[in-house]
Amino acid sequence: MFGINDKTYDASILAASQELHACNDFSLFYTKLRDMLRERAKCKRFSILLYNNRLKTFSLDYSNAFDDAWYAAVEHDGDDSLIQRCFSEGIPQYSVGQPEAGSVIVNGQSEAVIGCEPLIIMDQIYGILACHETDGTLDTMWMNIISKIISTALINLQLYEQTNNEASENAAKLWAIKSAGELLSHMELDSLVVKIMELVLSIVSAQVGSIMLEENDHLVTRVEWGLSDETIRSIAHSSGVPLVEYVKQQKQPFLIEHPDTDKRVNCSKLSSKMDSLIVFPLYTNDRVLGVVNIVNPLGDEKFSSRDMDLVITMTNLLSISIENAMLYKEALEQERVQEQLNIARKIQQDLMPVEAPKMNGFSVDGINLMCDETGGDYFDYFSSNPEKFMHIVVGDVSGHGIGSALVMASARAHIRAFANNIADISQAIGIINNLMILDMEKNNQFMTLFLMTLDYEMKKIHYISAGHEIGLIYRPGEDMIIELESTGLPLGLVENAKFEDRYAQLQENDILFLYTDGIKEAMNSGEEMFGLDRIKQCLKKYSKLPVDKIMAAIVNDVTAFTGNAQQQDDWTLVVLKMSKVKKERKKNDVPEEKQSCNFSTETKEYLVKFIEDEPDIDGVEVYHRVIKTDLHEKEHLLDDIIAVTQNMVAIDEESSFGLRLCLDEALTNCVLHGNKLDPSKKVTFSLYQKENTLTFVVFDEGDGFDPSRLRNIQEPAPWFNENGRGVFLMKELMDDVIYFRSGRGVLIQKNYNITSPVTEETKMIISNPNCMVEEVNGIIKVSFKNNKILNESNIERIHLDILELIDNKPEVKLIIDFKNVQYLSSSVLSKLVSIHKKAVAQDGVLCLCSLDPVILKIFEITKLTKLFTILPDIDQAMEIIQN
């Protein structure tokens, strides 16, 4: 370290770093720093100078050379002084016998400067360590080392103090709820609104404000702290009405940073100048209670969106407290110990729908069951045009208790405001994410969210899933379940994150099921989770019931499964069902089962080869997979096959399309017509290579079919059914097609220019539809096929497959390549830690590479960059891991 090879010296440096970084207050920090500088660097008296970018001056943060001068303004003599050169050049400066090395002047007291070191963080100089007097020969090496330790330790301490301040903010919010309850049991409403005013002003560091309450359809000023009724009413909205009346009517907050120039308002009648202004409505359950007005006095910093967000959170909760004053009083009388938590629970439940909305052609119901007095789960229905569409939302804030409840309340306010007023829900969610991130990241919180807009006429949903659990659509007519996977990261993790929106078409009798992870992860006494499969079984079992009965039945099943086991998370679920569409039958309609779908029987030669025995396959098996009978599994397998083929073959877009079309036909026939969607049956696939020939073999476990259905014709007749056209295309596009095992299997051959034949050095070990695994010269490489790794079941499958792959492999060399991955679930991080532990336990090494900047930031936030070796690309990773 620092060019010194002495292990004792290195240990001393490490001890010094640990000692300073362990300090949790400035007094202790500077006490230890003073002793450390004197003992190790021989610096007897020193000063820490911090630079103020706004004022372009230094201030004294600490010194043992000046008396009672902390935070005092600092002067230094000359542009060529040690301090000025150190700051401008960013390198240490020492007098080295110079008689005029410069001095520091504080409150008229002057102290010579012997040497100084820059304090640098992220290549930016923010301060100076100046030495005034030595206790022997000054050890410049130790001065340099200590300055580097100070650079990070001082910032960490400031962040720690800031975090404590933010924790104090949260404590203030909790105190506001507690104070409201105490006031309801002893005082009148006037005292409560005064307390609200005091709390709101303290949160945003303002001194002037007022609270107006609605009385007989008029706003009446109930609290006036330095802001007269006449002054606030003199501010008009551009529409001509007073601003306070406009905010009351629109029920929307108003932030005015420049009252004199903001064209939304007219401040010409103001008798005194204002710096900035927030006007915010008090309302609950769509009943307006009043408005809060806050003015930042001239000379102070202007209000920001963060200030308004804090006000939104608190006034929203406090307005509910006003409306439910009697409930507070009853709670205090019945149980004082649980008073605050009971009130908070009631407040939170009041934020959720009391009854389901009426929707044309649809029915919906939802429920939220908290495991504690308050929680972070949330669901809602709302619409600005309920005759045409409805917004439905389910969210889950990480953690429990008051903090999560407050975040949930804030999120509800944001979602209702922006989803109703911004047509692009991707943009709306992006704005909400940025508004919430400041409050959430300081507590390491995040929020998963599923927001959808249901269009009654189109019978379509437009949705975004921000890291939320998989939404499920059960289609009874086809006995199939459609999974609505996450389309982006959870809220509160990454600023300016992108959220992809998607659409899903609904059919008659479809059931849409949204839920939070508490349902899926509900555990019984044996620590077994209820799981996604049981949820799907419930949807199938209760599909004929109305939505309220479906919801009740699922809750009952989960309750019966968990028994007396204590639950660790809230349960929230929403069930939406589309009504049966009544169709009028036309006179000329022919029942579908009566329509002909046979192949032509005009000739006797088969369209493709048909043999009873197993085909002779010559070549090396390069890929083998067995999947369950499921259309989603089929799609994953198809992606896998195409990826493997493209790794071996120089294939153009047209050829790739043709190959995919043929393989899709073969696999779909196995799933739909061979196994008839029977989940107990399997579909088996193998890929063989011999020289320039690839052989694809697929077979199912069905009953086969009559070969007479495959008579030879030159082109498909216009009345051919869909499968007949597929067989014809397979024959035309491939070099050979052979059916075997009475039609249960099909062999497809195609000649290609093989560019990357399978060798002993490169071996495909793919066994997972979501990732590609190769072994190259003893190094295992894992890459991902999708740009999103969000599906929990897929994540667990990848995790278990990799663990199995490296199990009992001493000194395993593993690379996980995240190239093209744009989003990943937070659970991926814990799985990577598990894989890392497994590799290290076997004296192996794990390397990550090609991380997207957004994902890399998550690793930095969670400090996982200190655990993992992370490299820019696969080539560097291969080079490092080989050596």
Automatic annotation (TrEMBL):
Question: Could you tell me which SMART domains the record lists for this protein?
Answer: GAF, PP2C_SIG
* Alphabetically ordered keywords of this record: Hydrolase
Q: Which GO terms describe its molecular function?
A: phosphatase activity
Question: Boundaries of each STAS domain copy?
Answer: 790-881
PROSITE patterns found in the cross-reference section: STAS
Which Pfam families does this UniProt record tie to the protein?
Answer: GAF_2 (PF13185), HATPase_c_2 (PF13581), SpoIIE (PF07228), STAS (PF01740)
The entry's protein name is STAS domain-containing protein
